[in-house]
């Protein structure tokens, strides 16, 4: 991808007790998750990109220079849309009129997305004549996202768009966001501190801590690094892409094949053979043995090679990266186990995977 197809953002800004200092080089398509604990500077970063927060720096979005040392486009000149946790709709306008509000203000020749496309992607057709007061939280957010898209932005910023929703509404809206990811040509920067959302939606990830970027890169590769995932603590783990190869109705299981082997997981009604799926395997669910022990309850046993050992990531705990074919896995072991098994780089072992979950 050439420079003109990427997003490059360098910002420095300081408050009394907080400083943001970041240098980002992001893809110009797909969903990039901006991930980190509360207060690490995620919202401040988005505000810098939007021009809402004054910061020193440089920003280029695809082929446009939005900010340099000598000039900065003001907020209203930056062709982006921003969806917040609780975006407010105009209460006196119907859903349709809310959606078309921004659309009508965009000159016809600059419109890249039609209302019909947005209604379809976000399932909005049945809601068009409703008033906002009669929408659920999840429906309201879908309308807010639709309204944002109808301004034909070059960049979509989403700041914890699901965090005000209950669990069920989150589950209901996620498939729409996946659909947008797979259909939209517009890059999305998606702030979240939910590992589940990131695992499911993102293609690329930026991990932040105390105003700085501690890791950035493609999701799978970045999550499989051993130098920072301990920061994810219990959530450290990998994502792999696979395909459903077999459904076993008798045991309510299905088999996912991936580059490196196959895994069995619980069957869900919406899964069928041939479907592509994202699977999450947490480091704490992977143990290692030197031999293939078939006489035990764990059914996912995979041969793998030890690729890297990060010792004592926290006292007493080590993180081991393993390769099954081309696919990396992480195992979170006690340092004593690493010592007792005499694990060495390149050693052949068996991974015992206690739990495999669909990220989708
Ligand atoms: N205008 C401001 N003046 C002073 N301090 C600020 C200002 N805006 C943000 N901060 C501080 O900057 C830090 C980063 O805030 P920010 O909202 O960017 O974090 P965040 O990662 O988005 O957090 P959360 O996940 O809780 O939304 C916080 O300590 C916050 O108090």
Automatic annotation (TrEMBL):
Broadest EC class assigned to this enzyme: hydrolase
Start and end residues of each Mop domain: 295-360
Key words of the record: ATP-binding, Cell inner membrane, Cell membrane, Hydrolase, Membrane, Molybdenum, Nucleotide-binding, Translocase, Transport
Entry annotated with the keyword Oxidoreductase: no
Xref: InterPro entries: AAA+_ATPase, ABC_transporter-like_ATP-bd, ABC_transporter-like_CS, Mo/tungstate-bd_C_term_dom, ModC_ABC_ATP-bd, Molybdenum_import_ModC, Mop_domain, P-loop_NTPase
Domain ABC transporter: 2-235
Pfam families: ABC_tran, TOBE
EC number per UniProt: 3.6.3.25
A molecular-function term among this protein's GO annotations: molybdate ion transmembrane transporter activity
Entry GO CC: membrane
This protein's record includes keyword Transport: yes
Protein known as: Sulfate/thiosulfate import ATP-binding protein CysA
UniProt source species: Marinobacter litoralis
Taxonomy of the source species: Bacteria, Pseudomonadati, Pseudomonadota, Gammaproteobacteria, Pseudomonadales
Gene that this polypeptide is encoded by: cysA_2
């Amino acid at each position: 991808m050439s420079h003109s197809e990427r997003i490059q953002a360098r910002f420095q800004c300081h408050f009394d007790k907080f400083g943001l200092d970041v240098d980002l080089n992001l893809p110009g398509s797909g969903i990039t998750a901006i991930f980190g604990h509360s207060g690490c500077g995620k919202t401040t970063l988005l505000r810098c990109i939007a021009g809402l927060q004054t910061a020193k720096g440089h920003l280029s979005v695809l082929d446009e220079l939005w900010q340099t040392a000598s000039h900065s486009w003001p907020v209203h000149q930056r062709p982006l849309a921003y969806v917040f946790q609780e975006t407010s709709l105009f209460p006196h306008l119907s859903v349709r009129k809310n959606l078309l509000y921004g659309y009508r203000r965009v000159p016809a020749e600059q419109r890249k997305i039609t209302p019909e496309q947005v209604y379809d992607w976000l399932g909005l057709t049945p809601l068009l004549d409703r008033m906002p007061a009669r929408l659920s939280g999840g429906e309201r957010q879908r309308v807010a996202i639709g309204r944002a898209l109808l301004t034909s932005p070059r960049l979509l910023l989403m700041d914890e768009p699901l965090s005000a929703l209950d669990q069920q509404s989150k589950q209901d809206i996620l498939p729409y966001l996946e659909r947008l990811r797979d259909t939209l040509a517009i890059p999305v920067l998606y702030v979240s501190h939910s590992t589940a959302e990131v695992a499911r939606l993102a293609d690329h990830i930026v991990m932040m801590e105390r105003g700085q970027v501690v890791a950035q890169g493609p999701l799978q590769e970045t999550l499989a690094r051993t130098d920072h995932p301990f920061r994810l603590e219990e959530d450290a783990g990998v994502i792999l892409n696979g395909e459903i190869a077999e459904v076993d109705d008798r045991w309510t299981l299905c088999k996912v094949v991936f580059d490196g082997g196959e895994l069995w997981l619980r069957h869900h009604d919406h899964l069928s053979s041939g479907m592509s799926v994202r699977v999450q395997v947490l480091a704490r669910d992977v143990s290692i043995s030197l031999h293939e022990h078939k006489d035990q309850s764990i059914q996912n046993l995979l041969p793998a090679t030890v690729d890297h050992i990060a010792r004592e990531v926290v006292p007493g705990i080590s993180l081991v990266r393993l390769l099954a074919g081309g696919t990396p896995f992480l195992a979170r072991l006690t340092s004593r186990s690493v010592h007792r098994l005499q694990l060495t780089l390149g050693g052949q072992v068996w991974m015992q995977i206690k739990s495999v979950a669909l990220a989708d």
